[in-house]
Amino acid sequence: MPLEEQTHKKMELEKEIITKFSKKTISESFDITEKNIDGFLTYCMSQKDFSELSQAQNTVEIWEYLKARSIEFKQTELLKE
Fold first, then answer.
1. Which residues of 67-81 are buried (b: 16+ CB within 10 A; e: fewer)?
2. How confident is the model at residue 76 (pLDDT cuts 50, 70, 90)?
3. What gap in Å lies between CA 48 and CA 35, rounded to an integer?
4. Residue 31 to residues 14, 53, 54, 67, 79: CA-CA distances in angstroms?
């Protein structure tokens, strides 16, 4: 799949995630400030397995993925105070 198409798919998936669970919900659930949610989603999108989420059969799978990634994200230096 061409890079442009992959990027488009990832962006569609990101929109879908925000539609399913608002940025506020993600922020409150994973203890990431709302201003860092875009950075968190970008972090998720940069993971090799992110595009596999489009095959996720249910919302719980996506939520569990985000939960796991949020722990990693908080351990990185990507969080802005």
1. eebbeebeeeeeeee
2. confident
3. 24
4. 19, 22, 25, 10, 11
Question: Where does residue 57 fall: left (phi above 0), alpha (psi -120 to 50 degrees), or beta otherwise?
Answer: alpha
- Residue-averaged pLDDT of the chain: 89
Q: How many other C-beta atoms can be found within 10 angstroms of the C-beta atom of residue 65? A: 18
Report pLDDT digits (tens) over 22-66: 999 999 999 999 999 999 999 999 999 998 888 888 899 999 999
Indicate the burial class of 9 (C-beta count within 10 angstroms; 0-12, 13-18, 19 or more).
Answer: middle
